[in-house]
Amino acid sequence: MKVALLSADSAEVAMVRRLTREDAEGDIAWTASDLDETVARCRTEPPDVLILGMGNAGADTVRAVRRIMTESPCAILLLATSIHEQAAPIFEALGAGALDVVNLVDGRSVESSDAALHLASKLSLLRRLGAKRSPASPVKAGGNGQRPSGIVLLGASAGGPSALATVLSGLPADFDAPVVLVQHVDQQFASGMADWLDKQIALPVEIAEDNTRMQSGTVYVAGRTQHLTLRDRYTLQYRDEPLEQTYRPSIDELFFSASKHWSTGAVGVLLTGMGQDGAAGLRALRVAGGFTIAQDQTTSVVYGIPKAAARMNAAIKILPLQDIAAEIMVALHSTSNL
Hints:
By secondary structure, this protein is α/β, with parallel strands linked by helices. Helix content is about 40%, strand content about 20%. The protein is built from eleven helices and 14 strands. It has helices at about 10-20, 35-45, 60-70, 85-95, 115-130, 160-170, 185-200, 250-260, 280-290, 305-310, 320-335, and strands at about 5, 30, 50-55, 75-80, 100-105, 150-155, 180-185, 205, 220, 225-230, 235-240, 265-270, 290-295, 315-320. A seven-stranded parallel sheet has the order 8-9-7-6-12-13-14, with helices on both faces. Helix 3 packs parallel to helix 4, helix 6 (about 160-170) crosses helix 11 and helix 9 (about 280-290) crosses helix 10. The longest helix has 17 residues, at about 115-130. It is elongated and about 55 Å long.
């Protein structure tokens, strides 16, 4: 696998070289110190994975991801130096098309074996999935304590944070159903993403806890390396099985569990992302009687998961991102009158 690095920090370059050299297929093929050089090299020597050092300039990182994905798209892996201080640019960059994040420091030595293992595992996962990719052609209301008459289930991967923010910002503060979402992101970033989303939308956002009794008007975010599922119609639970799932938590497992407890009244939505996790689960939800939506190709940062759903005929509707929230409202209103 051909790996490249964008970083102006010589110490960071040396560190990443040391960490990746432990993986024979992950050694750095080339490095660049600025964005213009990176875009040019990506065009002439396209890497399978571009490792992008965030440094201290979060806004520059977001700009870099957007430009690379527009001009010379490739799989991008971010290097964060602090989860807490860089939460906003991390999730903006993920929304712009970066695939994943590695936290290298955050109070630990850059020589940390945990950091090395974390980076190696990310590169290994990208290798298994196939890293090459194409570009895409107010006051919180709180739960009302009522038993939900419907439920919304969201799944997303690469490009997901901003897509989730777009969909959720289209739901009103008095939304009368719980929302449960799985975004492919490390457990250590889940809390930061929930906090970031909470600032973007009218609905309150919280990390799902085991045995949570869902309330209408609250967004529950998967926050563990276990699978977030529905134990019954109104209760969330985490499960270890199936162990063989590539992603933990898995979008498929959330949708599969929902299909067992909900038919009419359930709305499943698959957004932008790499791979196909969630497509089979969305199909199961449709077969059970739920209303299913997939994001279209034009508005997807990475048209992988929604494409898989379309091929399986899992989605009743395939919609541009900006139309999904309104369709969720229509679907819930229709099923509540059945």
